[in-house]
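Quick one: structure tokens for this chain, please?
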Amino acid sequence: MARDMRKTGLWLCGILLLFAACDDGGERKARAHLRQAEEAFAAGAYSEAKMQIDSIRVLYPKAFEARREGIALMQRVELEEQQANLVYLDSLLRARQADFEAVRGKFAFEKDTAYQEVGNYFHPSQTVERNVGRTFLRAQVDERGQMVLSSIYRGSYPIHHHAVRVSAADGSFAETPRTDDVYETSYLGTIQEQADFKLGEDGNAIGFIALNKGRDVRAEFLGDRKYAVHLPASDREAIAEVYALAQILSAMDGIKKQMDEARLKMDFIKRKMAEREVTGESGS
């Protein structure tokens, strides 16, 4: 009986040791994902590499060694991904910069460095000195691509306008929402009012004028009273060209912001990698 019990005990110990050997926390299976992640990383398939590393964390939470190495690999993947992204964004910026250089000579640039951090581009036909006494629509865009359409009214009586409707002969039209960016002054009996509408908050009035630059367009200044003018071809063309410039400058500004974000991410990843090296947890 005692001999049988010893045999049984040895058998049970053997089974337990076998299970212990097999139960490695999923390390072997996790390492299969780690190998696939390394292969994807080498091939530049960053999304696939990150997916394989994430699989280790989700499927094998107790595979501590594989997870540790996966974290180190993830940092390398993300760093190289941001480096590649930065190269791509730089190529986009160069292309947009070339577009800008091709047209910048068509515009007047105004910037008072004493109080302006960002300058503005105007079409030469719409500079202040060329439009004294006129009631018209003027376009400008700053260096970051923020375009503003200004309705400028000059007359002998106030109309207190705060919106503009632009329309074509076929009945199509666009109308700005009411704006609070309104300025009113008077000088020697002449009233001057100006209302500003930012691109994106203009009810597509800017896009409408650009689309209809080759057609007659009527502009109504809406307020306590209405006042209407027909936009001459020179103003329609000026607004359309500033609109095109705004799209270029806005794209450039957006790319620069993305590049800044990529650099910040790279700096963050490098700090984390350095911390892991210091603590001896690089896993490489």
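The first strand starts at residue 108 and ends at 110.
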